[in-house]
Every structure is written in C-alpha cells, then in structure tokens.
C-alpha cells in the first residue's frame, strides 16, 4: 500500500512539531524517518498510524484519504518503542489479541494456527506460553512485531524499534527485520535517531530537522550528496574547516577542492575522517599529532593543524604515527558549503 | 583480618545502643497507642459474658444501625469506585485544561475535617439551606435520612480509589491502550481486557480502604443523619449513643464489629500488596510499564 503525506502540519500546545511535511512512500518500500530528538519524526509516524490527528494536510493510503480514519480502522501494525506488550497475557495471547478483537471473526483453531505461524516467523517457537516479563528485550521486540503483523496490516510502523536493545542484538534484529520485510513485502516506515540503523536497513532515508524534511533519498544519495551541513554532520563524524572559494574551487592550506555552485568568498569545508590521509612528507595541511586512537579496523589520529583548529582522520592500521609527530594531512575529498 | 573485624566501626545508624533504643521506643508506642486500645475493645465487649454480647448485637436498634451502615456502604462504595476509576482514567490518559486542578480538588476530602463536610451539606440541603425549600416543596428528604448519610459518606471517601489508581496508571502510561486500539479493539474492550487487568489489585485495595472508611465514618454522618435511634443511626453513631447511655458492654460490642472490619481490611491489604499492587504499585520497580508479576499467579488468575 502506497502512503502519501500532503503538507501535513501538527502543532502541540507550545510548539510546532511538524511543519508541512509532504512525503511519498511507495508500496513495499522500507523507509526510515531519521532525525534528532524533537525533529517531529515520531509525530509523523503517529499521524500515519492515526494515534495523532494532523491539524491540516492529508494522509493517503493508496488512493483513499485516510486522514480522518481512526486508528482502530486504519489497518496499520504499530510497534511501540517500549513494545507495549500486555503484561498480563502470555506471548501467544498477546499475538492473538488483534485477531480476537477483530471485526473479522476467526475460529479458535484458526487463531491458534496463525499464532503458531507467526511465532515461527519471528523465531520464537515454543515461547508462546511465557509472559512478557519472562523473555529478553530482543524477544519482546519480536513478539511486538508478530502481534502487529497478526492483523494483516496494510502498513507496518515501527517507533525506534531497536532503541532499547544492546548493540549486538540490535545488529542481528536489523538484518532479520530486513529479511522479514523482503519476505512479506509490506510497506514499512520506521523512526530512528541512529543514522547507522537507518542506512543499514532502509531503502530510502528521510532526514528531518525541526519538523521539516531536509533531505530524502537512498542511503547512497544522502551519503554521497548531502545537501546541507546539517545532513553532512548528522550522518557521521565530520571535520569542519574554514576555506575561501574562488572560481569554483575551495582552498585549504595548499590543497584545493572542487566547489561547484558555491559563490566566491568565505565557505566551510566538511571532511569525513576517512577523506583525509596522513603523510610525514608531502603536501596538504601541516599539522601535529595530539593523540592516536586504535580501532580494530584502523587508527584515528587527532591532529592540530598549524593554522589552528582540530582535525580527526582515519588511517590504515599500518600507518606509523605517535603523539607529537609532525606531518601533513592530505585531503582526498570533501564537501564545500557556503558559510 | 579477623582481629580487625571486631574493632570495625559500625555502619551509620547501626550503633547497638541506638538501634535497641529506637526499636524499643517504636514497640512501646505501638503497644500503648494502637494495640492496647484494640485489646480493651475485645475485653470490654465480652466483659459481661457472651450472653450480654449477643444481646447487645441482636438489639433491634443495633441491628438497624448495622443494616443502615451496610446499605450505605453498598451504595457509596460502588459509586465512588466508578467515580475513582473515571477520575484516574481521565487524569492519567487525557490531556485537558484543569487536569492539575482536578487532581488537587479530588484530594480535598482527605485534608478537610469530615465535620466541615457535614455542615456544608447542612447548608446546601437543610431547611434554611440553598435547596432546602425546593426539596421540601417536592417532599424530598435528603438530610436526616439515607440520602444525606450516603452523600456525606461519599464526600469523605471520594479520593480513596482515585488516589490508589492515579500513580499506577500514570506509571503505566498510554502505550498499552494505544496498542490495543491499533490492533482494532473498541474502547470498552480495551478497558476490560487491557486497562482493568493491569490495575485490578490497586483497584481492589482502593475499594477495601473506601469500604472501611465508609463504614467507620463518624463526623460528617453525625451532622447530616440527625442521630435518630433506630432510624438514621449508623454503627459509629450508635456506639456513641450506647456509650452515653452507660451501656458500656453494648458500645464495645458494636465497636468490636468495626474493629474486626478494620482487621479484615488490614489482612486484605497485606494480601493485595503481595499480589504486586496497592501501595506496592508506587514502588518504581513495580511501576514500570511491565510490572514484574509472577507467572504462576497470573496463570491461576486466567483460569478463574
């Protein structure tokens, strides 16, 4: 089911949470709403679910105007941030709840069979008789998903689905959610503040700031062509350096970077740590190493350029470097934005 | 090392002298102020033997007082329970203007002397009161009759159920109801299948407390009931009357019934707290959205 939002606005008592957001989610797509806290991403998700009503604007499910359809009849599966499993019901009863209260009447055996299918789908066979308090966080997450899927939703909505889990469980569940999505082909929208999660999981990432969409596109598009300093720095570690632009080129130290479309004058260069290299001799920005941090995949150097400021760069593990060494930072690529 | 353990300074607040003195003080005070009077009630009630006790209980006026008290409780407790659930639901699940004010207003009966409530009802429904003439014109009796007694009892006990539920429901948040609704459940279905099961122990505890207070209420009821023997006397009022008539054994006999009620309430409270609700529900560990309830208990609960 395709979802379209047409200039949706939502204001809460004191502040405006969502300012005229328009968005299209194609049928079967897996889309991430990514933004810092307060960017309105959860409010958008709740409006799509019908848990909040938009003050103005329209929400369409396919061709149907769903703006005023109450949550009960909207046919969405919603997975809450803290799962919201019913603590007094077993896992199986939790999953069966939606089918039991549905207007579509199902027999006891039909419900039991579907619960068993769903438990298998979320790899929790045999845990149906447990209570939510007796299973782990990751398992609760999967129960919440199974419960949402039990009502055959047209759309699956997940609010910070992995927020409360530890790092390893999170990565496994992400891959697994992607598999389930590919298997069921259900249109899925999820909210996250974790850029790694969004890029890892989604077909398309919608980046929000202060209730507005700042950029949307595939993970490749937003990573390679960030359209603003905000997107650039929100998606990953960045170094900022002041620079001057002349004739479509930015100068930092004795290095130059292409700056197409940036007006002459003062500008800012954004560099990822991986865009920089370290050399004892050569050209680039003269600097001195302050600290070396070792990671399994390489080394990160914290350096102080001679002209002031600070830079962080990721280099290969074989690079020899020590605090106090002097050398040059070579700039391989970077993005220039007008200051 | 073992030699030094003897000389290890006691932890803060654990000096033996302090500890013993504190425990002794609390025990003595409890014995004199709480336990002794209860024992006296029992002893005095039976001081002239079973026969006198039985006679005091089976006296027509006493039986009427007991009946009136039970009828009052049968009306006031369900009404206040419904009110308490509605108030707690409204305050914790909705945002509306005046929500905080409502929270404070609900608590007024806790902080106000019951006799003030009684006098207030007198001014509203009394002959010289606000609605007095109107009520008299339609021959409706509120004061010095059952309606007045019920109203006064309800005023005094209005906060009990709401007070128990609000902290618990606040901690539980709205997620469960939202989840149930998004799965297609109606409002009633959500309330009975999701909300109620998660507040049932706190609710029961509130009801038990409310009932104990309704049956024991003296001040407010004494003003509005008129104290007519055999007609508008509830148990507490009847006790006072008997006492003033120098029927000490009778007074203590009726008092013993109220005392037993109090003990039953306490036992119920302890049992309910063990079920992980009541005041225990305010404990942060238990007030999480998914209270740590034990499975065997829940399993038996389901089968009933």
UniProtKB/TrEMBL annotation, chain A:
GO terms for molecular function: ABC-type sulfate transporter activity; ATP binding; ATP hydrolysis activity. Residues 3-235 form the ABC transporter domain. InterPro entries: AAA+_ATPase (IPR003593), ABC_SmlMolc_Importer (IPR050093), ABC_transporter-like_ATP-bd (IPR003439), ABC_transporter-like_CS (IPR017871), CysA_C (IPR041193), Mo/tungstate-bd_C_term_dom (IPR008995), P-loop_NTPase (IPR027417), Sulph_transpt1 (IPR005666). PROSITE patterns: ABC_TRANSPORTER_1, ABC_TRANSPORTER_2. It comes from Pseudaminobacter salicylatoxidans. Belongs to the ABC transporter superfamily. GO terms for biological process: quaternary ammonium group transport. The keyword ATP-binding applies. This is Sulfate transport system ATP-binding protein. Keywords: ATP-binding, Nucleotide-binding, Sulfate transport, Translocase, Transport. It comes from the Bacteria. NCBIfam families: 3a0106s01. One of its GO terms (cellular component) is ATP-binding cassette (ABC) transporter complex. SMART domains: AAA (SM00382).
Automatic annotation (TrEMBL), chain B:
InterPro entries: CysW_permease (IPR011866), MetI-like (IPR000515), MetI-like_sf (IPR035906), Sulph_transpt2 (IPR005667). It is a multi-pass membrane protein. One of its GO terms (molecular function) is ABC-type sulfate transporter activity. Keywords: Membrane, Sulfate transport, Transmembrane, Transmembrane helix, Transport. Pfam families: BPD_transp_1 (PF00528). PROSITE patterns: ABC_TM1. The chain crosses the membrane at residues 21-46, 66-89, 101-122, 142-162, 202-228, 248-272. It is found in: Cell membrane. The keyword Transmembrane applies. Residues 66-273 form the ABC transmembrane type-1 domain. Residues 278-304 are annotated as: Disordered. It comes from the Bacteria. Coiled coil: none annotated. Its main location: membrane. GO terms for cellular component: plasma membrane. NCBIfam families: 3a0106s02 (TIGR00969), permease_CysW (TIGR02140). PANTHER family: SULFATE TRANSPORT SYSTEM PERMEASE PROTEIN (PTHR30406), SULFATE TRANSPORT SYSTEM PERMEASE PROTEIN CYSW (PTHR30406:SF1). Part of the ABC transporter complex CysAWTP (TC 3.A.1.6.1) involved in sulfate/thiosulfate import. Probably responsible for the translocation of the substrate across the membrane. The complex is composed of two ATP-binding proteins (CysA), two transmembrane proteins (CysT and CysW) and a solute-binding protein (CysP). This is Sulfate transport system permease protein. It comes from Pseudaminobacter salicylatoxidans.
